[in-house]
Design brief:
With 77 residues, the protein is mainly alpha-helical. 65% of the residues lie in helices and 0% in strands. The protein has helices at residues 2-16, 37-71.
């Protein structure tokens, strides 16, 4: 009986030391869900605003060039 218990205990110990392959490695959290989420959102909004402003500057430059071209005196006259 003691021999059977020893064998059973040894078998359980060996089985308990096995590696658990069934659990998956956790995926990292999205940056927006971390403590830096507010900062990332602010940076994205600032970048969007900068692109909008750049487009607006280009539009204003085109309008200014067009207005300057209309106000120039015609050299042929």
């Amino acid at each position: 009986m003691k021999k059977l218990l020893r064998c059973l205990l040894a078998t359980l110990l060996i089985a308990g030391c096995g590696q658990d392959n069934s659990s998956r490695e956790q995926e990292p959290m999205a940056v927006e869900d971390t403590v830096f989420g507010d900062q990332v959102e602010t940076i994205k909004r600032a970048e969007d605003r900068a692109r909008e402003m750049e487009g607006r500057v280009q539009d204003l430059n085109k309008q200014l060039e067009g207005a300057e071209g209309e106000s120039r005196p015609d050299p042929d006259q």
